[in-house]
Amino acid sequence: MALSQNSELVVQLGDTYNNLSKHIEGQLNMHGISFSEFLVMNQLVSAPKHCLSRVELAKKVSLTASGITRMLVPMEKIGLVEKAANPRDARVSLVKLTTSGHKIYQEAETAVNETSNQLFEKLTSKQGEQLANLLRRMY
User: Which ranges carry the HTH marR-type domain (predicted)?
Assistant: First the structure.
């Protein structure tokens, strides 16, 4: 039995993600972070006061609560993120991007932008917008 058209598309999207992340990983390794860590840092940079609860952060990067905790432990050890008190609920700690983490993120962001531009240079601006719109419609 052959894969359906939608299944073929899922496989192609998976292959595309793997290829994109491999190219970006190479650039991010020079900054000492992985693509997954960059995605976490990107969410924190975008968040109010650069901090989120672990549960919110896990949802935003499509990880479980335990998965985000496992990812954050080494990030805390090297000073990219830190725990912050939650003024509304002392039982829930927040994850905050450190000053050092913010600096590394900014450097990594430049590398991601440059690599992304190279990866998508074969698409016109309009094609890029269309692709982005199609991908957003899936979720």
Answer: 6-139
